[in-house]
Amino acid sequence: MATPAFLATWIKAQKLRGSRMKDAPTFYRNLEEALDVRRTDHAMATRTQSTWKTGEAVDFCSNDLLSLGSSGKIRAEFLEELARNPDFMLYAGGSRLMDGNYDYIEKVEQEIADFHGAEAALIVNSGCEANSAIYAAIPRPGDAIVYDELVHASTHDGMSHSLALCKMPFRHNDVDSFRDTLASVVDSQPLIRDGSRSVLISVESVYSMDGDICPIEELIDIAKEVCTKGNAVFIVDEAHATGIIGPNGAGLICELGLQNEIAIRLHTFGKALASSGAVILGNQTVRLALLNFARSVIYTTAPSFPAVAAIRSAYNLLRSGATQESQEKIQSLVKHFLTTITSHEIWDEANDMGILSIPVSDNWELRDFVTHIVPVWTRQRYNFWLVFHLQLAKISAFPIDYPVVPKGQSRIRIMFHAGNTEAEVELLANSICEWAKEMMDIEKGGDSNKSKIPKAAQQIYAMMADV
User: Fold this and answer.
1) Cα distance between residue 366 and residue 368, in whole Å
2) Measured between alpha carbons, how far is 416 from 371 in angstroms, rounded to an integer?
3) pTM as predicted
4) Element (H, E) at 13
5) DSSP summary character for residue 357
6) Please, what's the b/e burial string for 375-414 (b: 16 or more CB within 10 A of its CB; e: otherwise)?
7) Cβ distance 441 to 360 under 8 Å?
8) Per residue in 212-233, pLDDT tens?
9) What is d(CA 245, CA 369) in angstroms, rounded to the nearest whole number?
């Protein structure tokens, strides 16, 4: 079998280089030795195109969730938007506080704010930049931050530059842990206890690596109960809910009607909306604070007209209802996958043996909606073996490893798209179960002459030896 292009590139990238650079300059040798640590764990990142982009595999990994990119819908709407504004400038011309502000971006920001039921909006260049801006600019001296332990890395980066000295995590989606942590902050911080400073509570609506949903309504109730001065405010990252959950894809907060309960929301455009950039929602006070205190806004060139036009194009599609069928299609496909894999003859035994686990499959039938993110867990040493099997089955899926997730919590993250078909979903479910059955047979087999490595991994390792 020919080696898929992605695997060929990946295999070459995992070969150790540091030991072969004894005569190289110290600077480069030290960098290669550091990279060898990643190569040893088969975790060396490479510059390559996913196999689905080259037509070699089915896409179960990309962020093009509504398939607006692959279908060409966003391109068509974008070109129409450009035609409606033929005299646009390619450049922004400066930061938002100088020459980078212009009527079109202000208009689009207000449209987005209105769509999400917010007072004001500020478009920035990325979700990472947005979180950096929020947590570096908004907390005041004496404030505290309470955050879910699984919030995004960019949130941690932003908090590291925050003026809030008290920062405390609570266990992921654990309402009891949240209550205890919040109470501890109130008890230990006199300025928060007397209501002169605030607690900023950081959560995500849909968690990007686990695919589960924040119990935001319960958290709000607890915050009101514990912070009797009304000085607890919520910051909700809706990156993975944008376009997927809520009326016309407006997000979880709009789905639950909690717009007035949340101080700041973040929506990103590089996932379901097939564009780039992000928007921070709040009131005018929040917007002014970001413009005046956020270094990543002050010292960064503003988003250009084409970038904002692409964003507006995506919102035109959302607002018109053109993506509603795609939202529903994702729900149908994820449910079909969960039904198919959990009803497979090997599921129960593989689950009991610890070879195959899908946490979001627990009681999924009882939920109002499912998310597009389905993490598949196996034994840590088996992660790459499952990925090898899927790649050779022409399924594009990737392992999620440290530092994206904590050590010992690697998993394969499956992403479902409106453009996937039921047949592709069945191929995915059956391929996973085929591999799990092979691993069950290996673990139960007593034949010392039989390989303890599954066939796909044997094939990949043989390819690596030949490189």
Assistant:
1) 7
2) 9
3) 0.92
4) helix 5-13
5) B
6) bbbbbeebbbbbbbbbbbbbbbbbbebeeebeeebbbbbb
7) no
8) 999 999 999 999 999 999 999 9
9) 8
